[in-house]
Hints:
Strand order of the largest sheet: 1-2
Radius of gyration: 17 Å
Helix content: 40-55%
Low-confidence stretches: none
Number of strands: 2
Distance between the termini: 26 Å
Structural class: mainly alpha
Number of domains: 1
Largest sheet: 2 strands, antiparallel
Oligomer: single chain
Strand content: 5-15%
Order of helices and strands: EHHHEH
Mean pLDDT: 82
Number of helices: 4
Shape: elongated
Amino acid sequence: MTEVSLPRLEENEARGAGDSLTAGVVAALTRGESLRDAVTLGAAAGALNVTRHGLGTGDAETIAQLREGVQVHDLPRFDTDAVVPQGRVSPDGSAALAETEDS
């Protein structure tokens, strides 16, 4: 599991952030960047979109600057049979928690 962190930004408009994120990931992958690097571009594009008034008002230079502040961290794996960690649960861990003895 991976966590993506960005600098704190002031939100103005959330619409279109997911589209911008997807476009950034696809653009980076099309250029041959790794998936991890593509995620940083997508995160920066999506984050910039949130700070703007109006869809598609960001620019490549500003996205590149914001991308420098994006951090990607691998989170430690945990045993789903062990004690449930506080704060974060993986999809597999969530499924394990939802299972009952009757399942």
